[in-house]
């Protein structure tokens, strides 16, 4: 994070200045993580009628400070915020409605739940973060005393209150009579507010206070790397890891992705003498409960964790203001002596976010113990956030998940052609993808964290074994396998076919498939929604062509192998189907020269040659991928051993 400000800062508009300092704060994970924190700036504008209005540009809900733009701020009428602050009480649902009505733009995001507090503070610029070092000071039984001793008297210390209207009222009450000698507020067990009429001064004051807290707690200063070199991860027993993922998914009622992260902070926490005690006291700030649940799972007893979570909900159910939309009881953070830190999520992103948060949690817990005694919010207060009416509304409003959310697909031949199209289609439908290919380009196809490219020669059984295990360690297991790697030897009659061309066709198209199926079966048998295999076979299986003996025979053998797998694996709920494409010309196999040659042989134009099927349509990789993806969906849950043509119709088959 850069702590220097360019000389051109003063030339920026007020909102641009707020964007600038917001991004600086949001880019430092020791200050803000994944949507946390909020900022605002006030200015006087002239509205459409010529009336002067004081507007509070406050961070909009759902925006991240690290990447926020001007459009991410809600322009709210300050006078309306001040009027709301005069109410004795205001529930969060009505508050959100009021914030929408206070906005000057109908298409602006909903203002932060802290907007009333931003409006109450008279300073022009208000900055709020959940800085690790500030939280470590405040997560203490005597947090107020420690904060004042470390950070001085020119700040207001407020006991923990749930964010929103109640917090604004608590700050207003504590603020009364101290307006002239306070330029920062520490919310115990929550975070830090600084404010000034100058964005630069508010920013500088923020960093100064965090630096003082970091120096006292031994945590990294703003801008420093929070994590030392992590220990080398121990090898994972892939089957045991997949079994853990299966149990977590069963508890969640949906497939889950696992993420295992080497972490020096978590290793230190796990080896601390009082590890069990301090790691089960709760989250460092209550908002984290939404991402990590209140407690991590220690070890691998998912059933016990599930029971304990359900008991926690029952103990606190009466605190909810309406019937609960219950959150699944599956853990989001797992601390295990062998595995270290493992996080679970409905998506890869969710699992990564939980891991980021828990790494900082481990750091703060240990820092708080160095200062005194780690004392986060109570179980009841954490429950109030986890089952907050606003979060409950989100749960009730959530739409259907992508078809393959939480599932992991492995695709061979994924760097180009049909394989690449299949991998991208599965990822677009929500799956994480383990993409195998002989080409190094497979690692560069996508920067999306759901894409894991592995260079692999499918003719090498040990390379296949390593690649499959690497994919399992990356995401937790496998649910879908699409063997698309294949080779089409140069056309030649049998008597002229070179032996090495025959051997290579068999090695890639048959032996490679055999090695892959042997490796993936145990993981597919543990798939939460049942394992699926879709082999990219060929029209040449039912209708071989002259000059294609190696290709036709190898694809027929591969199809027969897949049919046997369908027979053998049905008992464990694994479906195995095949697609038979033909004349898919948007692949690397079909160069312009080869197309021209083949079209000339048939006395056709290139376009006619591409459409020489019953439907007179061109078959594309995307169409093949669409059929493959459909065969993996729930509507085909009763289909196995099927061979589906994707060839535009062939008079040799129909």
Description:
It is a single chain. The protein is of the alpha/beta class and 654 residues long. The chain folds into 3 domains: 7-217, 3-Layer(aba) Sandwich (L-fuculose-1-phosphate Aldolase), CATH 3.40.225; 238-397, 3-Layer(aba) Sandwich (L-fuculose-1-phosphate Aldolase); 408-646, Rossmann fold, CATH 3.40.50. Helix content is 42%, strand content 14%. It is elongated and about 100 Å long.
Give me some keywords for this one.
seven-stranded parallel beta sheet; 23 helices; alpha/beta; seven-stranded mixed beta sheet; Rossmann fold; 654 residues; L-fuculose-1-phosphate Aldolase; 3 domains; single chain
Could you provide a short overview of the structure?
This protein is of the alpha/beta class. It is 42% helix and 14% strand. The chain is built from 23 helices and 18 strands.
Distance between the termini: 65 Å
Rg on CA atoms, Å: 30 Å
Number of strands: 18
CATH architecture name of the largest domain: 3-Layer(aba) Sandwich
List the topology elements.
Blueprint: H1 14-26, E1 38-46, E2 52-59, E3 73-77, H2 78-85, H3 92-102, H4 115-120, E4 125-129, H5 132-138, H6 143-151, E5 156-158, H7 165-175, E6 184-187, E7 191-196, H8 199-217, H9 238-252, E8 257-261, H10 264-270, H11 275-279, H12 289-292, E9 297-298, H13 302-316, E10 333-336, E11 340-345, H14 348-371, H15 379-386, H16 389-397, E12 408-412, H17 417-428, E13 432-437, E14 451-455, H18 461-475, E15 480-482, H19 499-524, E16 532-536, H20 549-569, E17 575-581, H21 592-601, H22 606-610, H23 621-632, E18 643-646
Parallel strand pairs: 5-6, 9-10, 12-13, 12-15, 13-14, 15-16, 16-17, 17-18
Antiparallel strand pairs: 1-2, 1-4, 2-3, 4-7, 6-7, 8-11, 10-11
Helix pairs in contact: 5-8, 5-14, 10-14, 17-23, 18-19, 19-20
């Amino acid at each position: 994070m850069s702590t220097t400000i360019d000389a051109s800062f003063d030339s920026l508009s007020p909102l641009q200045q707020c964007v600038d300092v917001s991004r600086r704060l949001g880019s430092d994970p020791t200050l803000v993580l994944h949507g946390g924190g909020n900022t605002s700036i006030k200015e006087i504008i002239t509205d459409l009628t010529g009336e002067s209005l004081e507007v509070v540009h406050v961070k909009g809900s759902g925006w991240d400070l690290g990447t926020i733009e001007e459009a991410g701020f809600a322009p709210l009428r300050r006078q309306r915020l001040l009027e709301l602050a005069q109410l004795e009480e205001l529930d969060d649902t009505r508050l959100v409605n009021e914030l929408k009505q206070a906005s000057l733009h109908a298409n602006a995001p909903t203002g932060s739940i802290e907007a009333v507090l931003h409006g109450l503070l008279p300073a022009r610029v208000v900055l709020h973060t959940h800085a690790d070092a500030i939280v470590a000071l405040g997560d203490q039984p005597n947090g107020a005393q420690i904060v004042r001793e470390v950070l001085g008297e020119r700040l207001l210390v407020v006991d923990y209150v749930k964010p929103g209207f109640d917090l604004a009222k608590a700050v207003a009450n504590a603020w009364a009579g101290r307006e002239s000698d306070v330029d920062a507020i520490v919310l115990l067990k929550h975070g830090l507010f600084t404010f000034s009429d100058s964005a630069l001064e508010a920013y500088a004051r923020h960093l100064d206070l965090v630096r003082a807290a970091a120096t006292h707690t031994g945590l990294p200063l703003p801008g420093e790397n929070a994590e030392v070199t992590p220990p080398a991860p121990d090898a994972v027993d892939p089957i045991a890891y997949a079994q853990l993922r299966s149990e977590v998914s069963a508890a969640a009622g949906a497939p889950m992705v696992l993420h295992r992260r080497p972490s020096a902070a978590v290793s230190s926490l796990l080896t601390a003498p009082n590890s069990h005690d301090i790691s089960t006291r709760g989250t460092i700030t209550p908002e984290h409960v939404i991402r990590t649940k209140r407690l991590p799972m220690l070890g691998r007893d998912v059933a016990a964790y599930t029971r304990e979570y359900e008991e926690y909900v029952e103990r606190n159910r009466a605190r909810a203001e309406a019937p609960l939309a219950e959150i699944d009881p599956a853990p989001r953070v797992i601390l295990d002596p062998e595995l270290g830190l493992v996080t679970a999520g409905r998506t890869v992103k969710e699992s990564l976010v939980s891991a980021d948060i828990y790494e900082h949690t481990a750091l703060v817990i240990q820092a708080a113990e160095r200062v005194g005694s780690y004392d986060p919010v109570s179980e009841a207060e954490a429950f109030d956030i986890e089952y907050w009416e606003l979060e409950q509304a989100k749960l009730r409003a959530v739409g259907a998940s992508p078809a393959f959310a939480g599932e992991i697909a492995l695709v061979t031949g994924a760097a180009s052609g049909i394989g690449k199209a299949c991998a991208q289609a599965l990822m677009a439908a929500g799956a994480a993808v383990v993409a195998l290919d002989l080409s190094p380009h497979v690692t560069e196809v996508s920067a999306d964290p759901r894409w894991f490219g592995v260079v692999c020669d499918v003719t090498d059984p040990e390379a296949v074994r390593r690649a499959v295990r690497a994919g399992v360690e990356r995401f937790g297991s496998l649910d879908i396998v699409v063997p698309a790697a294949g080779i089409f030897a140069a056309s030649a009659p049998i008597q002229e076919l070179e032996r090495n061309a025959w051997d290579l066709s068999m090695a890639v198209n048959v032996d490679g498939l055999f090695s892959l199926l042997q490796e993936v079966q145990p993981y597919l048998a543990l798939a939460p929604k049942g394992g699926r295999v879709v082999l990219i076979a060929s029209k040449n299986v039912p209708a071989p062509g002259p000059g294609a003996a190696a290709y036709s025979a190898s694809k027929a053998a591969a199809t027969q192998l897949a049919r046997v797998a369908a027979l053998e694996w049905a008992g464990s709920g694994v479906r195995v189907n095949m697609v038979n494409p033909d004349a898919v010309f948007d692949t690397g196999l079909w160069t312009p020269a080869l197309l021209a040659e083949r079209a000339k042989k048939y006395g056709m134009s290139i376009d006619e040659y591409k459409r020489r099927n019953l439907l007179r349509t061109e078959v594309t990789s995307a169409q093949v991928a669409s059929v493959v993806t459909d065969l993996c969906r729930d509507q085909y849950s009763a289909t196995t051993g099927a061979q589906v043509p994707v060839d535009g119709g062939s008079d040799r088959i129909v």
